[in-house]
Amino acid sequence: MGLKRGKRWLAGLLCAALTLTAGGLPAGAEGAPPVIIDTESGETQAQATSEEVPAWAAADGAVPTEASALEVGGKSAILIELSSGQVLFEKNPHEKLPIASVTKVMTLLLIMEAIDGGLLTYEEPVTCSAHAASMGGSQIWLEEGEVMTVHDLLKAIAVVSANDACAMMAERISGSEEGFVARMNERAAELGMNDTLFTDCCGLDESAYSSAYDVALMSRELMKHPKITAYTTIWMDTLRDGASQLVNTNKLVRHYSGATGLKTGTTSQAGHCLSATAERDGMGLCAVILGCTTTDERFGGARKMLDYGFANYAVYTPVVDEASLTPVKVLRGTEGSVQPQMDPMPPLLIKKGQEKAITPSLELAQDLEAPVYERQIIGRLTLTLDGGTLAEYDVYASRAVARLGLWQAFCRIFTALIA
Predict the structure, then answer these.
(1) For 92, which of 228, 321, 339, 360 is 20 to 30 Å away at the CA?
(2) Domain stop point among 300, 315, 330
(3) Catalytic status, residue 104
(4) Known catalytic membership, residue 155
(5) How far is CA 19 from the centre of its chain?
(6) Which domain covers residue 94, as residue numbers?
(7) Is 211 among the residues known to form the active site?
């Protein structure tokens, strides 16, 4: 048995012993697989698998109607709506802080972009290098030469924050961890993450930093890849054909309705950090909280922010009455009119209860002088709310209409005379 494999089984046995002595769920029935948890969280297996509902998950009074009345812990926090990116609450959002394993949000983003870009497949096998096998902190005890699919490595990263799995994927995508880190920083710049510096692919190096705002930016981008939630919503699962059991440190997945992820992070310097995402009634939110003194403080703070967002806001999808998009007359054109059209209108974030107060106003050109070009702007739809403009959308010509030539005009006149 290799050294890493021996450590893997020893870790599992120690976790099982702690579970039995602490009164948690026994992995434990005889023959159960070793349990792997995110060791950086400081939790025992018993705590990680406990069925008890934590105090932070219970409702604690009325949800405030104004962001100014929202009180959360930590050094920095932010709440955004995912489709629009609109900020609903913030507390020191640009303070540069270590974020520990929340760094892996960017690692997961680059993996998902590689998959969706056709550079990787979920079932592609990846071989563990000596460097990946040497990673410390949270891990799944990969041995040099061990082969694991991209699917299982994603699971290991999302559920138990496995640093060795991160290094394997970094090397597969960029050839080396150093090359991957360079791409992480490039991608951060592309997203406007101006408060961020990545120095490794997993968050072990605490000279790296980010901010609540920047974490929200990369979390929002990751959630544009909907298949990631197949991994970030896992509570318990297995690897190695059931030989290793995984337990998620993100307790929101188990105790918060609509939770979709996303990533915890804990070190002595960073404190307890969290990027939490959830979706209800078609609206997605992301709550980020950094620098908490306890794990309950981070989960409780995230829950308060999410509760505030869901209680006070809704997503409104504008619709246009197709019957109002009547053909517009074209003067001196090869066709007498052109049909207006509109692009799909993105959803809008509004305060709950405002839906019925939104008033649409459609303006179309009375006529158009040929030539008319395809997608030429020929009108505008305006949505107003409480006397102010909520949104504006262009109306386009659905096709081109050429101008009549002299001969075509003569033929048209002649046809009209003899008809």
Answers:
(1) 228
(2) 315
(3) yes
(4) no
(5) 33
(6) 30-38+71-315
(7) no
Q: Which of 221, 215, 247 is nearest to 74 (CA)?
A: 215
pLDDT in tens, 244-298: 899 999 999 999 999 999 999 999 999 999 999 999 999 999 999 999 999 999 9
211 within 8 A of 196, measured Cβ to Cβ: yes
177-190 and 212-222 are packed helices; what angle lies between their axes, rounded to 10 degrees?
100
Catalytic residue among 76, 83, 161, 210: 161
Same domain, 95 and 121: yes
Please give the tally of structural domains in the chain. 2
Read off the pTM.
0.86
Q: Are residues 310 and 376 in the same domain?
A: no
Query: Are residues 262 and 333 part of one domain?
Result: no
Give the active site residue among 50, 101, 138, 219. Answer: 101
Instruction: List the Cα angle 152/143/251 in 5-degree steps.
Output: 45
Active-site hit among 104, 155, 251, 263: 104
Burial class (CB in 10 A: 0-12, 13-18, 19+), 3: exposed
